[in-house]
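Entry 14. Structure prediction run on the chain below.
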Amino acid sequence: MRNHAYLYGRMHLKHIDTFLLSVSILAPVFPTAIAKISVVILSALFVIRMISLGCVLSYFFEKLFIFILLVPGFLLAPLVSIENILVFIPIMILLFGFPFQGLRLSVYFLQYFILAVIIYLILGQVFIALGQEFFLGFQDSYYPIEINFWNYGYVTGVFYGYREFRAGGIFYNPNLFGLVLVLYFIVFVNLNVLARASKKTKIYRWPLLYILTSSCVLFSIYLTGSRTALVSIIIFIYLESVGPRVRLVNLLKKRLIIMHSIFFMGFVYFLINHIYSGFVGSSQSGSIKLNIFLNHILEAEAQTLFFGGEYSLPFDQEIGYWFGAVGMLGMVGLTFLFRMYYARIPMIQPVILSLLVAALGNSVFYGLLTGCIAMYVFIILSSMHPSKECEIRT
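Output returned:
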């Protein structure tokens, strides 16, 4: 009788955890009016669940050290605007919740749930780009925007030259849409791999549905014209294909030489023709972002460079935003935070490397909505990583 009650309790927790995470990871694509408040409320519920896991004291001194490095920037945030505190939500949950052991998730359900979200985003993007009235009305009603700075008009077909037209989907901003799609795709792929490892899915790593999903996502990101999103997802797919730990000896294996050669040549061609062009000329977006960042370093006061507190400059990229917010001291803390995940969870290494590329042109964790999705990527992989239950380490 006790065993039956215990198993029932575990199943009940699994349903609760899966539901909470599903709704939380979907919240960033809720209608604009409720998206942010939903993320905040669901994050608070997740914090309560995190505390119940008893993992807060795991790796205590390592977490305390990182927290101390982030404290100055965190305390300076509300002096500019109280809303600046919100950008710390994903980072603080990742810091104090690690390693999230004890979460009980249905990988099988989550992967199909994320696949449905991806389909929703891509269909919306395509039909909005084509000027379909129903989807335009849906966007105006549930994702309104005061001034659309990314109005590229409409097209009669979805096949056109790269960046000749940029489709931003329900978010209007093609760079934001591209990043959100990359994040959901990363979640889907890792859930796929985890489900395959547990032998609870028929979607194997490289069969038809996986290839179709990857192709549709790549094409959708191509439609956005977001260079950083495209490079990020290509790097992620490549690293996933060769495994989490890529060593030179593995790269030289005969069966992989052709694949690596094709990837390298195509990647270099893309860098030369599209990425480099973004930095040539003072009016190019990459050049503008770089100049804002360099000017901040040259002109800011020493205390701002060291402790942070700069929340007003439009860096328009992750590293610049965080450097301004938490300074050099906080950047050291963030480095140690992600090293904590990178060193202990092999599956998360391709994720961190690809998001590092995305961070060069977008805000990933610094944006509350994108940060929420990225946070749950880390939580899923950490909670599913085979290890002992949480233990208090000093």
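The chain is about 70% helix and 0% strand.
Filed with the rest of this week's runs.
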